[in-house]
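input
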Amino acid sequence: MKIILYSDKYRSELELLLKQFSQEVFNTGTADVDSFVGCHWAIYLAIKDDKAIGFSSFVINTYFGLRSHTLGNTYIYVDSKYRTSKAMYLFSIQAGKICIDNGFPLEHYYSSKSSSKLSRKLDGKKIYEAYIYEVGDVEKTFNKLINKVRIEE
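output
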């Protein structure tokens, strides 16, 4: 098992992993590899027997210039068949190494309770929570209120 920097050699395998992740976490099973690669500072792959079995991705984040730089570990995903392998362990250590090598604080995002176990040894500062509200719910809540807002163009 080894961790490598992403290259187009593994494009189709990354796409498959992204679709698996999307299905598992967001229940959609879609992926746009070009957009994913283009929006990340770095993407690393876990390779076993010359096959990509997982990925870890990072962005340099300033929240659009509103605060100092952090290294955002946006996603860590390992194919379910390999979750008992060393891949998750290596990705967790790798996040720390990249943070230290680049001198940026590490920022993790959690899509499930189990993913938050990755940082159980760290004492981080919680900066936000994110929620998704479906259009129907927003409509129900705001429908009688939106006519009070006039937006000029």
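quick obs: The first strand starts at residue 2 and ends at 5.
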